[in-house]
Known about the structure:
CATH architecture of the largest domain: 3-Layer(aba) Sandwich
Distance between the termini: 6 Å
Strand order of the largest sheet: 3-4-2-1-5-6
Number of domains: 2
Radius of gyration: 23 Å
Bound molecules: adenosine monophosphate
Oligomer: single chain
Mean pLDDT: 96
Number of helices: 14
Amino acid sequence: MKKTIKDLNLKNKKVLVRCDFNVPLDKEGNITDDIRIVSSLPTINYLLDNGAAVILLSHLGRPDGEANRKYSLLPVAKRLSTLLGRDVCFEDSDTVVDDTVKSNAAKLKSGDIMLLQNTRFRKEETKNAGTFAEELASLGDLFVNDAFGTAHRAHSSNVGICEFLPSALGLLVEKEVEIMGKALKEPKRPFTAILGGAKVSDKIAVIENLLNIADNVLIGGGMMYTFLKAKGYNTGSSLLEEDKVEMASSIIEKASEKIQLPVDTVVAKEFKNDTDFFTTDADKIPDEYMGLDIGEKTVDMFINVINNSKTIIWNGPLGVFEMDNFAIGTNKIAKAIADNKDAISIIGGGDSAAAVEKIGLAENITHISTGGGASLEFLEGKILPGIDAVDDK
Ligand code: AMP
């Protein structure tokens, strides 16, 4: 068991908190979705309420080790200040830590909030090398990791820093690990996993792990065509990973009673929304046509399984949900998951979370993970380095 912030004596301590403030920005640099900032508030408030001063760390985008103000955390400091109703002291340093930052950190008092500049302004961050982790650690007394979105990466600001300070998990990471961990270890059954997204190669490890645990694995999205090819069907010009057909074939053979593949699909000649499209049986995709969504019969078949499930994990859209004409399958499945009030429903971040939020159903889901890549690796059964590095109880 990992320590959490509830195990720490926080009074008059300076606590460095790794958050995931990697928020989407528009061209003018305005935050278009602040869910990640909102998700960090319980931990920040807990630390402040218990007498700590907080020093917040995060990356934003990929500045590749350069102090590029396009990726500045200034908009985050402003939004955070509004959400907390308190001042947030933003340290806009090219090197993230410098003498001014050190001297300002030394002056922090219980209840103060400081936000450092984007940790990826430093090349050492993603390499977890050099002195960066030690420089960060020198600013405070304790370290808390509350960034689930980067927990699958071993960087200076989440893994390296744990070498230099006593550490614990924040409330968000604790919740992510608890809900997803419980679903994998002792799921209420029937347990259904729904897997979509573009590529089989990205999802093979997750499919294999979930096939060991789940009762049903429903496959959709771009990756379904590699499975259909493995069944010997023509897939036209659909997305296909030729080199994974054999693998798909052996997965179908090993787990035919658990895996459900689409029986029909929406096809079009061109990869765009405004084009002619129709639904065809999965084994009758014409040459020159590509599959862009699951069909109605498949939607009904999947909904039937979803309605009878007690645990549902969903990762990856079932069609090209960014285009309205091919978002129907994804939206209907999202609605069915949200409508099943008897089930624990977990959405593995990324595009599926975006799909649920877009149609306003997020509130009816038990848990929407804040980390796409991290939740995928968690569902693969991997140990996440950002969590592993934190002190045990
Ligand atoms: P992933 O990041 O692997 O979860 O993949 C998400 C992407 O898969 C989204 O951008 C979808 O548009 C895409 N996708 C889903 N279904 C299809 C499909 N049938 N053909 C091509 N791309 C798809």
